[in-house]
Amino acid sequence: MPLRETLARVDTDLAAGRIPLARQRLRGLVSSFPDDLTLRRRLAEVYRLYGDAAEAGRWMYLEEDRNADETAAFEARYGSPGWRMKALAWRGPEAMAATSFAEGQLVAVRTACAEELGHPVDWDDPASYQDGLEDKYEEAPSEPWTVGDVLTGGGCLVGTLVVIAIWINGVAALFD
User: Fold this and answer.
1) Cα 103 to the center of its chain, rounded Å
2) Which of 101, 82, 94, 87 is nearest to 58 (CA)?
3) How far is CA 95 from CA 35, 58, 104, 119, in A?
4) Spatial separation of the C-alpha atoms in residues 133 and 143, rounded to whole Å
5) pLDDT in 10s for each residue of the chain, 176 residues
6) Nearest CA-CA partner of 28 in 3, 61, 57
7) Which residues of 107-142 are buried (b: 16+ CB within 10 A; e: fewer)?
8) Within a 10 A sphere around the Cβ of 72, how many other Cβ atoms?
9) How many C-beta atoms lie closer than 10 Å to residue 47's C-beta?
10) Sign of torsion, CA 140 141 142 144?
């Protein structure tokens, strides 16, 4: 699906309150166009709707006008340069970055990761920077629950209880 058409669907999804679908579409676009800072900014805006500062900070990390609290939350959640490289989902040379600030951020993360691991790393070779992540961390950094997560879980629970109540009433009606 072309970029403009997908962005139009994102706008439609957001207007209709289908935030998870909009987020999913934007994640796909960022994956396809990792050097498009506008897409990353849009994705950060969606994560702000969830109240997820770390993910907003993740997708705004390459922007000069990023929010310091969101950046700190991202860096805390993805505590090592290797995890940050993985989280940023960049591909290609840093020179492809749209701004000199973004390029500097990418170089800084890659350099810190190479220093931590003791060997060169490359954005296009995830194995080069993911080696040792499993040794250092048993699992990926966990994300705290957001208000959206709690509401979704509560909605699922209520829906399940309603279905059970309807089923029980239906079974009871058979024996009346």
Assistant:
1) 20
2) 87
3) 10, 20, 9, 21
4) 17
5) 789 999 999 999 999 999 999 999 999 999 999 999 999 999 999 999 999 999 999 999 999 999 999 999 999 999 999 999 999 999 999 999 999 999 999 999 999 999 999 999 999 998 988 865 654 444 445 555 565 565 555 555 555 665 565 656 665 666 66
6) 3
7) eebbebbbeebeeebebeebebbbeebeeeeeeeee
8) 13
9) 23
10) negative
CA distance 33 to 18: 22
Type of residue at 150? V
Going by the DSSP 8-state scheme, the letter that residue 95 receives in this structure is G
